[in-house]
Amino acid sequence: MKFSDFADINPVVTLNRHENYSFVELANIEVGNKFVKSKEERLLKGGGAKFCTGDTLFARITPSLENGKIAQVKDLKRSLGFGSTEFFVFRGKEGVSDNDFIYYLSLSEILRGPAIKSMSGASGRQRADLQVIKNIEVPDIDYTTQKEISFVLSSYDDLIENNNRRISILEEMTQKLYREWFVKFRFPGHEDIKMVDSELGEIPMGWEVVSASSAMDINPRTTLAREGDKPYIGMSYLSEDSMVIKGNEYRSGNSGTKFKNSDTLFARITPSLENGKTGYVQFLDDENPIGFGSTEFIVLRSKTLTPEFVYYLARSNSFRDNAIKSMTGATGRQRVQNSCFDNYFFAQPSEDILKQFTVIVRSMFELIDFLHRKNVNLRQQRDLLLPKLISGKIDV
Known about the structure:
Helix content: 25-40%
Distance between the termini: 21 Å
CATH topology of the largest domain: Adenine-n6-DNA-methyltransferase TaqI, Chain A, domain 2
CATH superfamily of the largest domain: DNA methylase specificity domains
Radius of gyration: 24 Å
Structural class: alpha+beta
Number of domains: 2
Largest sheet: 5 strands, mixed
CATH architecture of the largest domain: Alpha-Beta Complex
Strand content: 15-25%
Number of helices: 10
């Protein structure tokens, strides 16, 4: 049957102009995660896709569609929201199709393949043809079987979401610990340490005011052979609010920044820097101990600190603001000047406090990496099952 007979496409949702609603943009969708949640409310002034909790948002523009920017909306305030004009909205049709099944069907090549082939328009701004999508032939699967298929696949996504929650909690815990110890100076035994004057104000005795460039290597020289395929990280793999590097690909050559495990990747171009794109490398292995990536991030490596401290220093507002102020270049392509790290000063903790901090947070960093790898495996298993369940090759 035609997809337009199976699902409601861009269903009518009534929202009141000049009221605040949950807003979702393309950047909010994490490829591979079933759910997307609104991170903000916006005033509805005009156009944009309108949707309800449970609807599927389907990116219609390149390269978002090819990359799999498809998600089911969750936890909207008042169950209503709006978002980017670059979404198509799909919803289960009453008595015909299930919302969860519509999401999984949207992920499958049954829908995505023809949608991608239908794209037209100027280079880099091509969009899928809605009429083609409406006419795509989809399997006529009965409602009960749809629910059973969704239940099987959702079990994987529920585990993924649970692991993501655990990652968020661990990151929040370590970040709070960093602020407590190194911003508020409330580290273990601080009551017995005298505060002394410095150019930064009062700091604990035994701590030293240093520049970022003296405490860490900025784009350290790392040798990588040109031959063979190596792990490559593009800017799109860095998160705005997490240390997790969301994926990687393999490329030949060695042009770009080079990094090793325990390095911090820090975006240097607008608007990635302002948005907070920062990652912590811990996915490399003995077979590939060095990776390379975009020239648009800076590699930060500890010299007199610890890798974990460097990561959270790079995540701090003051560190990022200092970098932003140094940016030069054409509008929309401004970049950080490496000399800015000579001018950023902070209080370097005593060796003992750094060691105590590292002992506590390193195991949490490793657990975050373990949970992320587990999610990668869960997504792979789900994606292998999905087409076989929908096509009937595997009996539910």
